[in-house]
Amino acid sequence: MLKVGLLGAGRIGQVHAVNIARHPGSTLAAVSDVHAPAAEALAATYGAEVRSSGDIIADSAIDAVLIATSTDTHSDLIEAATAAGKAVLCEKPVDLSLERARACLAAAEGGTVMIGFNRRFDASMAAMRTALAGGEVGTAELLSITSYDPAPPPVAYVKVSGGMFRDMTIHDFDMATFMMGEMPVTVSAAASSLVDPEIGAAGDFDTAVVTLTYGDGRLAVIRNSRRAAYGYDQRIELLGSAGALQVDNVTETKLVKSTVDGITGAKPTYFFLERYMPAYVAEWDAFVTAVTNGTAVPVTLADGVAALELAEAATRSAREGRPVALSEI
Amino acid sequence: MLKVGLLGAGRIGQVHAVNIARHPGSTLAAVSDVHAPAAEALAATYGAEVRSSGDIIADSAIDAVLIATSTDTHSDLIEAATAAGKAVLCEKPVDLSLERARACLAAAEGGTVMIGFNRRFDASMAAMRTALAGGEVGTAELLSITSYDPAPPPVAYVKVSGGMFRDMTIHDFDMATFMMGEMPVTVSAAASSLVDPEIGAAGDFDTAVVTLTYGDGRLAVIRNSRRAAYGYDQRIELLGSAGALQVDNVTETKLVKSTVDGITGAKPTYFFLERYMPAYVAEWDAFVTAVTNGTAVPVTLADGVAALELAEAATRSAREGRPVALSEI
Amino acid sequence: MLKVGLLGAGRIGQVHAVNIARHPGSTLAAVSDVHAPAAEALAATYGAEVRSSGDIIADSAIDAVLIATSTDTHSDLIEAATAAGKAVLCEKPVDLSLERARACLAAAEGGTVMIGFNRRFDASMAAMRTALAGGEVGTAELLSITSYDPAPPPVAYVKVSGGMFRDMTIHDFDMATFMMGEMPVTVSAAASSLVDPEIGAAGDFDTAVVTLTYGDGRLAVIRNSRRAAYGYDQRIELLGSAGALQVDNVTETKLVKSTVDGITGAKPTYFFLERYMPAYVAEWDAFVTAVTNGTAVPVTLADGVAALELAEAATRSAREGRPVALSEI
Amino acid sequence: MLKVGLLGAGRIGQVHAVNIARHPGSTLAAVSDVHAPAAEALAATYGAEVRSSGDIIADSAIDAVLIATSTDTHSDLIEAATAAGKAVLCEKPVDLSLERARACLAAAEGGTVMIGFNRRFDASMAAMRTALAGGEVGTAELLSITSYDPAPPPVAYVKVSGGMFRDMTIHDFDMATFMMGEMPVTVSAAASSLVDPEIGAAGDFDTAVVTLTYGDGRLAVIRNSRRAAYGYDQRIELLGSAGALQVDNVTETKLVKSTVDGITGAKPTYFFLERYMPAYVAEWDAFVTAVTNGTAVPVTLADGVAALELAEAATRSAREGRPVALSEI
Q: Where in this chain does the record put each Gfo/Idh/MocA-like oxidoreductase C-terminal domain (chains A, B, C, D) (predicted)?
């Protein structure tokens, strides 16, 4: 039974708390949060203690920590936790600073750190990768990722988010690497602010097309928008030499209405919590299994840094209006 | 080059005229209609002569006749045309009187008569039968036919139509035999007038469920309505021992609109002319090919009589509230 | 916090145990089972006591019991539990004997008894009923329920199951009443044994079409098979005066593969545990909410008896080869 | 009745011949081809004369010419035909040389020239533009065009085709302008040869992602491949401020097979002749209608030159590895 300390009791921390508590191989031992009432509420629900993150990391009875705090604390907490011998599951992104993230990667070497790229654990995405790896559509040639949020975040959030590429597209960058099995050599991004002019005024983008070119000429393209009126649009397609694979959206229900106005089905599930709840459960299970069995975690800290490199390259490409080589980053 | 006489220049006759004229193996030589202007308009368009049906049948230069006249003339015309050595394609139903249809079948024995069950020539329906015959889902166990018209016909038409089972369901009865490969032993129909009370007042039905039981216990069910607000609903499903086959509706376009109100696709094509136009082309091609090659026509007069027997049984079942054995008919 | 005793620790009892334990408004206090190890395993997992069903019912500290025992014990347990003032959620069917079920209904009058027709709590089915009730497709005219199991049960089970109509179709009967809002006046069933000859030898059916006729002429048809090679097929359609509603299958993933062999999507989820797991959660939540708030349970014991009446009528109809009036039952 | 001369009796000329002959407002009067037997066969089928293209253009009894000859002759024939007062429908592309195409545009000024961008006449594409123009999804933000051929052309063809962007993507460039309603300001292409190394050896590409940036920040992305094992993949999506529009593939049939291996539907229609045959009919009808009524043709020679400009920019971008401004072209 893995004894787990949860650092951060906000929205995503609450999701993880449920999964930690329900998993037969883990128990939620302690919770910390800079906002005490949040930690207290979670702790009360699951019979855990409220403690500081430092105490939790220092406690030898704690086997693992889940880091769901604000991004600027991730690197420090990863380093402290691995130094204390804890297994770590840390939410994305590793850091807004690529330099700091790289330093963290070096510091945490030898430790057990998994990054929370939850989409890898979505049943459909995972099945797609398995089908691809099994050669069911030949070799990969052209990958397409569609990733639209239902509505833009508040501008206040945008300003501290590191920008769309580091905050939102980072999931798509990881998915590209997950599917293509390697890093691209160049990144070319076209990006605009069409959804909310305040996002543009804050120096960020809300709509983008990012093209990735791989060493052997394979291509990938990511489409992003901060707004899709019909809900969270999360699709992925891969054209291979012998066919194509495609993951469609999950819908709220399977009800279809046929009237004189057309044939109408349900919208996609609203946002990531609805779409990826089963993926968070599977992610936690994968972490517990790896830590318990002493096997490698399926998403590494290096994967987190790699995704950040792509975000850095895309940001530079969009700002400078030119393809950026990964070797520049 | 098959020289063809078209008997009947109404709506369905006009459809056939185009197909006869366009087919590289047939030419439209003559047209008849009780309403002279209709015949004249068609003849002018395709460079054919206007003649009486008697003249056309008597003309040894005419190879084949297509009978698209009112139902009460079908049997007489089939008999006359086959007696004159013409190949015949006759629209459904053979006759409203089963007795008369049976007499026609006997009289036309040895002649070449094909009945216009156009759905057998629909690419999807035909592919379904091929898949079934090829054992792709094992042996057939439960067939389901959905057949809804977009809107009810005028009551004046209903009164002379022979009733919904002879007029509309007859296509579904033929499709059941086409797929199951044999006639059922009992027919059980539940029917109501829900769409238009005048249809009920005229002694007919507009909504029905018909269950067919086959000798070996296999089952089929037909669902009918004279009204589907969203268009012509023409689907068919077959559960087999190793899977299922299903034909979905053809839609007006492939456009899908996603908004806050849902994900909306196009409606089915409106009615039989839109849905089955390619099937009419294929039907005519099958007729020309069979006649030209001297091979058997793919839908026989006996098939037409068989469908009428099922219509008769369904009508009796619905009226008497009991399953009717085919042996009673 | 509702203190719950679980009677029956078999497969479905285990499903309920999880939901009882996880619900914030209920706790699993005690478990009974005729097979002690099953009860012990469940009790250990959730920190509950193992007790006899009699003890549990007699314990005034227990607020509610969930009856997941074998069908022949349902009526007795419902009566005992309601007599002891417990709120009851009982699995379907109420009883194999309609007479006994009716007696139970009379005996339990005034008590709080909910029957576990889980499909009413499926998000898609519930949304369909809401849409229908909201007049989104006008008034209901023709309801169609498709309900195929992936594989037949062992013949040993079939022999004690009360037959397909009482064991399997009973869910579809309840769904028909749920959607149509009233009981039909006649039931007409055609049924065969096509899947497994031993099922036929045991006097039961494995393939059926059941037609329900309502007082105002509205119709419903249920299609059943004990075997669909591709998984659990659970669809429902309703044709209304202004359109149609349809619930499609839930699939294992959203992955689609396109190759030279066609465009292939995932199969439906395998069976009822996979398909209806969220419905069981919602069902339990509805029970807890009703009991806690003192409001009416959404599926009553009378609903359970009504479904049994339809099963009785269908069984008689299939055996006697005639429509059976509900007034005969 | 428009008297039409058909210049070019190859594959696409044959498609047009049928449509010219069948249209009630046009007749096929003459056919020319450098390969005499091809012209003779077509002429015989439709009762037209075989003549040289010069004779046809010089004949004052001919109202219109359809240019379906090899691309290198288009500009000369357009100029000659418009000088002779003929209405012209010319296949794409206008020319492989942008300079020559621009000269042709200047020379043909005042004449009636329509370019054969058939996809604009596809019912689904046209419905999408109508929905967009009607504001059904708000304002356009991000357009995505998927355009994969089923199999690559012979390398001999590739060498004279002007390259993938001028030969294949040109349709997608026109579609982008059709939907977005204006030309982009920059074009950025990433392209590879993954399908056939001989295509790469010939200096061309077979796989590409092209990003278009519009003056107001709106974006479009085109995905191309010369090979999709499952058939001709022709989809288009548009994300707008209030929703999205999407055109899916047309499939060979509507048959769906469900087995233990999954749920398999039919493939897309094989290639452009199958997919766009109705679009060619509608295109010809639009031309006849415009010429007969003296109204503007719906696709102009300027549209043809504009698409060529985008092809030129994309070619340059892919070769130079940088975004290319339209102002450079």
A: 148-326
Distance of CA C119 to CAs A86, B314, C115, C129, C246, Å? 45, 34, 11, 12, 15
Task: With CB atoms and an 8 Å threshold, state whether C245 touches A258.
Answer: yes
C195 and B141 within 8 Å at the Cβ level: the answer is: yes
* Beta-carbon pairs below 8 A across chains A and B: 48
3-state helix, strand, coil in chain B (%, to 5): 40, 25, 30
pLDDT at C313: 98
What pLDDT score was predicted for residue A123? Answer: 98
Query: Closest Cα of chain B to D20: distance in Å?
Result: 13
Domains of chain A: 2-115 (3.40.50.720), 120-277+307-328 (3.30.360.10)
Kindly report the nearest CA distance between residue C94 and chain D, in angstroms: 34
In this structure, the strands spanning D2-7 and D26-32 are parallel
Element (H, E) at B39: helix B36-46
For D259, the closest of B123, B243, B252 (CB atoms) is B243
pLDDT in 10s for each residue of chain C, 329 residues: 999 999 999 999 999 999 999 999 999 999 999 999 999 999 999 999 999 999 999 999 999 999 999 999 999 999 999 999 999 999 999 999 999 999 999 999 999 999 999 999 999 999 999 999 999 999 999 999 999 999 999 999 999 999 999 999 999 999 999 999 999 999 999 999 999 999 999 999 999 999 999 999 999 999 999 999 999 999 999 999 999 999 999 999 999 999 999 999 999 999 999 999 999 999 999 999 999 999 999 999 999 999 999 999 999 999 999 999 999 99
C166-to-A7, C162, C173, C274, C312 alpha-carbon distances in Å? 53, 6, 9, 22, 7
Q: Which of B192, B194, B244 sits opposite C228 (nearest CB)?
A: B244
SS (H, E, C) chain C: CEEEEEECCCHHHHHHHHHHHHCCCEEEEEEECCCHHHHHHHHHHHCCEECCHHHHHHCCCCCEEEECCCHHHHHHHHHHHHHCCCEEEECCCCCCCHHHHHHHHHHCCCCCEEECCHHHHCHHHHHHHHHHHCCECECEEEEEEEEECCCCCCHHHHHHCCCHHHHCHHHHHHHHHHHHCCCCCEEEEEEECCCCHHHHHCCCCCEEEEEEECCCCCEEEEEEECCCCCCCEEEEEEEECCEEEEECCCECCCEEEEECCEEEECCECCCHHHHHHHHHHHHHHHHHHHHHHCCCCCCEHHHHHHHHHHHHHHHHHHHHCCCEEHHHC
Could you tell me which chains touch chain C, where touching means 3 or more CB pairs under 8 A?
Answer: A, B, D
My answer on whether omega of the bond before B152 falls inside 30° of 0, hence cis, is no
Q: Which residues of A touch D141 (CB under 8 A)?
A: 194-195, 207, 225
Helices within B181-211 (DSSP H only)? 197-201
What pLDDT, on a 0 to 100 scale, did the predictor assign at position A40? 97
With CB atoms and an 8 Å threshold, state whether C144 touches B229. no
Chain C touched by B185 (CB under 8 Å): no
User: What DSSP string runs through A88-126?
Assistant: EEEPSPS-S-HHHHHHHHHHTTTS-EEE--GGGGSHHHH
Of C22, C127, C255, the CB nearest to A255: C127
Question: In chain A, what residues touch D225 (CB-CB under 8 Å)?
Answer: 141-142, 239
CB contact under 8 A, D223 and A142: yes
